[in-house]
Amino acid sequence: MDAATANRLFTSGKNVVIASQGLPNDVSLNSLTAFAVGIDLVPVPVFKHVTPRGALRGVPNQTQLKDRVIKGANILVSLKDSSNVEIPGSTGICIGVRAPNGEFIKWVRRLPYANWYGLTVNQQQSEDILATLAAKTDLGTEGLILPEQSELYVGVQTLTSITISWANSFLSFQLAKELS
Hints:
mainly beta, Jelly Rolls, 14 strands, about 15% helix, globular
């Protein structure tokens, strides 16, 4: 994709939020109730968003606040087990993409869950905390471009076995969506 298209998407596109709650057709969770993560260091996908046919979406590497723009993605995360206990802060939250008809997920960024650990979703949405979180979620690029049928993944990387209960957990991304 050329730079002009990416710039248009991230500056003129409409923002849309994808989240683990509500489950639109283009979002899927790896087991709606629980998911056991192995003890190796390979990220295990727990969240997937598929860009609909005919659409162009992207994860901008900037977050709009009331008075300024912060470099870093707008990602809210609260992961808990079936006992409503938060997963360890040492867990890695990995962001990955798979191209249409791609064979493998390309993991592009690993972020420490410690960034979100101990914060409720309401706290994460407050202006001051959101600014701090966005600064810690720099994707290392201008953003991730997701052409139609591309897949956006969130994986969990841990040394211990954990179970994620989506009944107790929440994850959301701010996406840019090209206007038709």
